[in-house]
Design a protein that fits this description.
The chain has about 250 residues and is α/β, with parallel strands linked by helices. The protein has one domain: Alpha/Beta hydrolase fold, catalytic domain (Rossmann fold, 3-Layer(aba) Sandwich), CATH 3.40.50. About 35% of the residues lie in helices and about 20% in strands. The chain is built from eight helices and nine strands. The chain has a nine-stranded mixed beta sheet with strand order 1-2-3-5-4-6-7-8-9, sandwiched between helices. The protein is globular. The relative contact order is 0.14.
Length: about 250
Amino acid sequence: MSSPPPSESDGARIHDLVVADTEAFLVEPIDGDARSGILFLHWFDSEAPDGDRTQFVEEAVGLARDRRVMSILPQGRFPWTGPPTDAAADSERIRTEVERHGAALDVLAQRVGTAPIGLVGHDFGGMHGVLLAADDHRIAAAVLIAATPRWGDWFLPFWPIAGDRFEYLRALAPLDPITRIGDLAPRPVCLQFARNDFYIAPMTGLELQRAAGDPNVIHAYDTDHAVRDPMAASDRAAFLGSILGWADA
């Protein structure tokens, strides 16, 4: 499938691509080669205007313009296009989603060459991102926003899942973020949570932090699950910039 010509916005060039059968934006600096890359994985909210691949576009444009960062922002498929149903199907859907994100990472890595790459993932994007980063060492650092330790933390309360709930939790345990987040070490991890999150209790964030290896850092913000807090964006830019090499650019 051919892609439309790129558009330009506020010092950045935006390409609209199809990667592994899903849409993705590629955002790059107009002037000069990229000094690093970021894979942005968005959150799930079917009623929010930014519950799709557009969520981090403004952030990616600013980083392209100011820090010469290239970003790729794929559209999530699971559970965006179909609900969880049962352990066997959901395990396969999670693995397939991670493979799609890996294909997006391939595109980004080809573009940035040897420049370092970071990951930013929110909600389900963060959970899928943990699994990708655990096995793909091209990701040098990760920011995980309002992610939960287990898939069942979301799926069981909010969807009608077939079968025994405890069998479901056991079946998905090898794919749970809390099982895999320690495999990111010694690559740095930044965890971002909201103090007024209806879905995620404060102890949940600490549980995920305890499972993470060193080094890691955790931040909490006076906001809700959407984490639309300018300080959160500033904190993750500072965190990634210090690792990917553009904090003082």
